[in-house]
């Protein structure tokens, strides 16, 4: 199985400041035949199901604010919230969909400082 | 609109059996993989497994293989997650979610169901 790790476990950022979340996979999730990175990011607010933010490591889902961006290589990925808003308080998860089981990272909790 | 609607909350005793459901609407149910995710109280997301309703091809996480059974009834556009003998440690919120792309196994989840809370207590 591909093991996903995230750092930090939690972070507190002032409103309007940048939040950066890291995700690492135990093996590459870059598929060489199509040069795509099989990595998604989700946001989960309390009492709600997860919501898709980003897929292919850097493609924003329709309707997701452009303050959310994703980047990364074959094993190291980053979700950046460029200017934190109050409504961004949530837990963020990465997920690899390169090979089954399609494992999730443990999550990073984002709060307001 | 693509929707997944899950069955309601359940309270069960250890050793009892249970089958929860997830009904898809607004799309061709047989042609999209649909999966299950566990979230224990205060914890993160765990991928349980996934099924392709068209031919019932099913994949499980090794952590859940043999502990649960995933099935689907394409005649009523419904996927299931079932237990034959519940344990207290099965207490969790369970989400169903659909893969986004037609027929693709290696894919991300969107949309998600609203979740089914399963409580197992004596």
Q: What is the rounded Rg of chain A?
A: 13 Å
Beta strand % of chain B = over 45%
Distance between the termini of chain A: 36 Å
Average pLDDT for all residues of chain B: 97
Structure description:
The complex is a heterodimer of chains A (113) and B (122). Chain A is mostly beta strands and 113 residues long. Chain A is 0% helix and 49% strand. Chain A has strands at residues 4-7, 10-13, 19-25, 30-31, 36-37, 39-44, 51-55, 59-60, 68-72, 76-81, 90-96, 108-112. In chain A, the strands form three sheets. In chain A, strands 2-12-11-6-7-8 form a six-stranded mixed beta sheet, with no helix packed on it. In chain A, strands 1-3-10-9 form a four-stranded antiparallel beta sheet, with no helix packed on it. Chain A is globular. The N and C termini of chain A lie far apart (36 Å). Chain B has strands at residues 3-6, 10-12, 18-25, 34-39, 45-52, 57-60, 69-73, 78-83, 92-99, 109-112, 116-120. The relative contact order of chain B is 0.32. In chain B, a hairpin with a 5-residue loop joins strand 4 and strand 5. The model of chain B has no long low-confidence stretch (mean pLDDT 97). In chain B, strands 2, 4, 5, 6, 9, 10 and 11 form a seven-stranded mixed beta sheet that branches. A four-stranded antiparallel beta sheet of chain B has the order 1-3-8-7, with no helix packed on it. With 122 residues, chain B is an all-beta fold. Classes of the chains: A mainly beta (113), B mainly beta (122).
Record the SSE blueprint.
The complex is a heterodimer of chains A (113) and B (122).
Chain A: E1 4-7, E2 10-13, E3 19-25, E4 30-31, E5 36-37, E6 39-44, E7 51-55, E8 59-60, E9 68-72, E10 76-81, E11 90-96, E12 108-112
Parallel strand pairs in A: 2-12
Antiparallel strand pairs in A: 1-3, 3-10, 4-5, 6-7, 6-11, 7-8, 9-10, 11-12
Chain B: E1 3-6, E2 10-12, E3 18-25, E4 34-39, E5 45-52, E6 57-60, E7 69-73, E8 78-83, E9 92-99, E10 109-112, E11 116-120
């Amino acid at each position: 199985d591909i093991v996903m790790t995230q750092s930090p476990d939690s972070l507190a950022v002032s409103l309007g400041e940048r939040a950066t979340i890291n995700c690492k996979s135990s093996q590459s999730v870059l598929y060489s035949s199509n040069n795509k990175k099989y990595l998604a990011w989700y946001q989960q607010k309390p009492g709600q199901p997860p919501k898709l933010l980003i897929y292919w490591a850097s493609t924003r889902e329709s309707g997701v604010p452009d303050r959310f961006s994703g980047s990364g290589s074959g094993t190291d990925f980053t979700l950046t919230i460029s200017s934190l808003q109050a409504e961004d308080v949530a837990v963020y998860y990465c997920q690899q969909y390169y090979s089954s089981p399609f494992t999730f990272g443990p999550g990073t909790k984002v709060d307001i400082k | 609109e693509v929707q997944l609607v899950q069955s309601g909350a359940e309270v069960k005793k250890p050793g009892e059996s249970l089958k929860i459901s997830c009904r898809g609407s607004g799309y061709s149910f047989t042609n999209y993989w649909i999966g299950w995710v566990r979230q224990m109280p205060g914890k993160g997301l765990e991928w349980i497994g996934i099924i392709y309703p068209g031919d019932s091809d099913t994949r499980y996480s090794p952590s859940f293989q043999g502990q649960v059974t995933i099935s689907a009834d394409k005649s009523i556009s419904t996927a299931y997650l079932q237990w034959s003998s519940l344990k207290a440690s099965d207490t969790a919120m369970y989400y169903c979610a659909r893969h986004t792309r037609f027929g693709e196994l290696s894919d991300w989840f969107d949309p998600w169901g609203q979740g089914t809370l399963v409580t197992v207590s004596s």
